[in-house]
Specification:
The protein has eight helices and six strands. It is α+β, with helices and mostly antiparallel strands and 205 residues long.
Length: 205
């Protein structure tokens, strides 16, 4: 039986999902909401292999809301990348996510950041979104799946927990390791990303 399970899992695809929350709801504060979202992944066809520590991180862009609780999970799945993203949006909706404007404070945010190292839909489209100026990022969201997530290299709140679950992961376009991307940030930026403490007041707003 164990051998059959191992053989079955060889057919699954590896993917990485980033989670974040900086608002509370009936589930509780942000840490409880992130935990609930992780628990919900198995119901949509994602097998959670490993979960990072939870980290307390400043809202991005600065001043847009309370601090976040962020995490990354390493999963395996038989679903396509498009279906994974669709199902993640359904989990967000069930937990209470709204999408009234870009980068607002949110109950939960689930991002598919990598799907077996695939570049989707193509390198040109990925590069267009990676290089999009910040003022346009605030206004525009892609209407199709973009992989890897075009902002990974810019976001310590993804890179730090990502290192917990996939320290050997290499960006399929930039060809940089997680540590190399983290090294591009200064000490002040690094100091802002700290392991979550139960005594904090994250997500109480």
């Amino acid at each position: 039986m164990l051998l059959q399970q191992q053989n079955a899992r060889e057919d699954l695809t590896k993917c990485l999902i980033a989670l974040g929350s900086n608002l509370s709801n009936e589930i509780g504060a942000s840490v409880k909401i992130v935990e609930a979202a992780i628990d919900d992944l198995s119901s949509i066809g994602l097998f959670v292999v490993e979960t990072s520590r939870f980290f307390r991180t400043p809202a991005f862009p600065a001043g847009t809301g309370p601090d976040f609780v962020n995490a990354v999970v390493y999963c395996e799945t038989a679903l396509s990348a498009e279906v994974v993203l669709e199902q993640l949006h359904k989990v967000e909706e069930r937990i209470g996510r709204t999408r009234e404007k870009r980068w607002e404070a949110r109950v939960i945010d689930l991002d598919l950041i990598d799907y077996d190292g695939q570049i989707m839909p193509d390198i040109a489209t990925f590069s267009q979104w990676r290089d999009l100026p910040l003022k346009l990022q605030l206004k525009r969201a892609p209407e199709q799946i973009i992989l890897p997530h075009p902002r990974i290299q810019d976001r310590l709140f993804v890179l730090i927990p990502l290192r917990d679950v996939a320290s050997n992961w290499r960006h399929p376009v930039l060809e940089c390791t997680v540590d190399e991307m983290i090294a591009a940030f200064n000490a002040e930026d690094l100091a802002e990303i700290v392991p979550y403490s139960e005594g904090g007041a994250v997500g109480q707003g």
